[in-house]
Amino acid sequence: MNNNQIKNPDFQLNDNKPKAVLLMIISALGFSLMGVMVRYSGDLPVFEKVFFRNLVSLFIAFFVLKRLNGHGNLFGRRENQKFLLSRSLLGLCGVILYFYAIDNLVLSDAFALNRISPFFILIFSWYFLKEIITKVHILSFVLVFLGATLIIKPQFNYSVIPAVSGLLSAVFAGGAYTLVRFLKNKERSATIVFYFSFVSVVGMIPLVFLDFKVPNLNQFLFLILTGVCAGIGQFGLTMAYKYAPASQVSVYSYTGIIFSGILGYLFWGELADITAIIGAVIIISMAIILFFYNQRR
Fold this sequence. Notes:
Order of helices and strands: HHHHHHHHHHHHH
Number of helices: 13
Low-confidence stretches: 1-14
Largest sheet: none
Radius of gyration: 18 Å
Helix content: over 70%
Oligomer: single chain
Shape: globular
Distance between the termini: 25 Å
Mean pLDDT: 86
Structural class: mainly alpha
Number of domains: 1
């Protein structure tokens, strides 16, 4: 047994790919339901929604860590602090931009733009983790960007801001999950989620009080459910990357585009236009092609 197997507390000797696939699909459903809860929380400021989303996740992660680790260190190893902090700040920026996109776009469009993040993971992993990137990877990235452009439909005015926010949320999420991959053999999944939630809650406090609106009972309930669904999505995704390489399971996160499309139609009668549907199909197709390409390699 090598050192990584000894150091990684989540390491399993058996084949965990089926478990990772199931966790990724659960994660996609969790994040799709999170978008519904964000919408139903109404006209509350984005910073307030982000605060409650991470506050609930913080308590969930704290409970899980205590069950796993007793009185152990909640914030991970000293040598990993800069990576945990960087992952948390990138993730926080991504969530803020994504919530803004959810509030102002068709739900499936917002999710599709955010799901471009695995392609940014390819770029960041090549640059920072020195992973190999091929011409096929580069071509897939170009086509995915074309798909994103069809969803965004650039008009060079203020109406494009929500779509650009959705795209930028994928950039920040890609950076965050690249660091999750780097940390996968160094910290528990619950530690990574707890650290991210803690930094997000502390970072949001000043911004929340700049424009705080007291939620009514229904809004408060949906804010709590936002955090619960986000916690399910976050733990599912982080654990999926623990149990199998991203190249084998990240494609299953695209089921969230389907979930979001169904939920958007059921709750608000939303239907993406034909251009956005073509863009989403291109993104999903490239993800599937890249999945099989990585399997062959």
